[in-house]
Write a structure and sequence with these properties.
Aspartate Aminotransferase, domain 1; 8-stranded antiparallel β-sheet; 7-stranded mixed β-sheet; elongated; about 450 residues
Length: about 450
């Protein structure tokens, strides 16, 4: 591939070319897409662009305007939301759920479609989670869209990098070839990121509009790069398979290592070359941990929230932790021996992702917890409420106990000298729930630990 690009330079492929791409490359792309997606594609339906982003930009620019809505995956490639905002449309995120291997819920997807929806963006394999939509997922999505007048931008840039299962495109669903703009390219499959070459496949009337946008923005994709692209498509594909197998070995080793780290859990990505670990049990926010890893360990990674609000929950655990830290009074509910609840206001401290409070050995709370350590804790601000369900055990860590008394006295201006021998209980969260009163229907968030 490199030789083909170098030879093209020596042969004079350094001038302007057709805005839609060199005919020979468009023919090669049409042949590859026809074979891999099981549909008939004409070269006239192909537009070659410098990288994948122009197809995202041109599609959103052509199909959405002020007041329209575009559904896109979140967490997801940041450019989706950025482009939607740019044209004045409303970004409508569809949450990718960890418990579904970062595939979205089709019923939730259906609930987001309305009369203002103009475009749906799909991405599989997915950046940044490595999630892959199954064939059944794609068919269910197509069924939900039905005969609505909607277009789909299907970002399939990682289509050749699937480790478990096979790639399936919505373009392959009957009736959807004409309603799909397929995005693919050379950056990921052939490790040609710096060459800047992608393409879109769409019906010919749309291709004409996208070509016009290409003419008036980039003019054309570099011709010598396109000559290298022809070689990439027509040449031996063994290097693609070798690279995929190498990525798979790295994936297996990397995810196994992440899952050995305290507080980390990571789903096995089924495609692409990303891992998206859950770090909530570490007590860190993703941004702070990413900064610390870079500064202290020389390890570069991106915060989950760089890919959208749902990268760390609509309400982030940092928000919930802040409410728990600043609360003065807390409601704690324990279970009596007869199974009935007992609720009391307590004072305490949120330290190291656990709630610490002191109580007398013979208090109702202490007696209840001795028989059943399950409890519920609530903060004191109903307008920004956080409720924690968890277990309470006597604190065994002497170093934390030593911190507790002076910090407690500072917070409450209360002399604890007479409580030094009383037990301190540590409430460790299993599940938490939080919401803000001002936007409770959108902000309600549940965290698992």
């Amino acid at each position: 591939v490199i030789d083909a690009g170098v030879n093209a330079l020596h042969q004079g492929w350094t001038h302007y070319g057709p805005s839609a791409g060199l005919p020979e490359l468009r023919q090669a792309i049409a042949k590859e897409v026809s074979a891999s997606r099981g549909v008939e594609v004409s070269p006239d339906e192909v537009v070659v662009v410098p990288g994948g982003k122009p197809i995202i930009f041109f599609t959103v620019l052509a199909l959405a305007e002020q007041g329209d809505e575009v559904i896109y995956p979140n967490p997801g490639f940041p450019i989706y939301e950025s482009m939607i905002h740019y044209v004045g449309a409303k970004p409508v995120p569809i949450r990718l759920r960890e418990d579904r291997d970062f595939r979205f819920d089709v019923d939730e997807f259906a609930s987001l479609i309305n009369d203002r929806t103009r475009l749906i963006i799909l991405n599989s394999p997915h950046n940044p989670t490595g999630g892959v939509l199954s064939k059944q997922d794609i068919r269910d999505i197509a069924e939900v869209i039905g005969d609505r007048n909607l277009m789909v931008l299907s970002d399939e840039i990682y289509s050749r990098l699937i480790f478990d299962g096979e790639h399936y495109s919505i373009m392959s669903v009957a009736g959807f070839q004409e309603r799909t703009i397929l995005l693919d390219g050379f950056s990921k499959t052939y490790a040609m990121t710096g060459w800047r070459m992608g393409y879109g496949v769409m019906r010919t009337d749309l291709a004409a509009h996208i070509t016009r946008l290409m003419t008036n923005s980039n003019s054309c994709t570099a011709s010598f790069t396109q000559m290298a692209g022809i070689e990439a498509l027509r040449g031996d594909q063994g290097s693609v398979e070798n690279m995929k197998h190498e990525f798979q070995k790295r994936r297996d080793a990397f995810v196994a290592g992440l899952n050995k780290l305290k507080g980390f859990s990571c789903r096995m990505p089924k495609g692409a070359f990303y891992a998206f670990p859950n770090i909530r049990q570490t007590g860190w926010t993703s941004k702070k941990l990413a900064d610390a890893l870079l500064e202290d360990a020389g390890v570069a990674c991106l915060s989950g929230t760089a890919f959208g609000d749902f990268g760390e929950g609509y309400l982030r655990w940092r928000w919930a932790r802040k409410q728990l830290e600043k609360s003065r009074e807390y409601w704690i509910s324990t279970v009596r021996p007869d199974g009935s609840p007992h609720t009391m206001i307590v004072w305490g401290l949120w330290i190291n992702n656990q709630f610490l409070f002191s109580t007398g050995k013979h208090s109702v709370k202490a007696r209840n917890l001795a028989g059943n350590n399950r409890c519920t804790l609530g903060s004191d601000d109903a307008g920004a409420a956080v409720i924690v369900e968890g277990t309470a055990e006597p604190l065994a860590d002497a170093s934390i106990r030593k911190q507790f008394f002076p910090r407690y006295e500072k917070k409450y201006k209360f002399d604890m000298s007479g409580m030094q021998e009383e037990p301190i209980f540590a409430v460790r969260p299993l599940v938490a729930f939080g919401l803000r009163e001002k936007d409770f229907s959108k902000s309600a968030t549940r965290w698992k630990f």
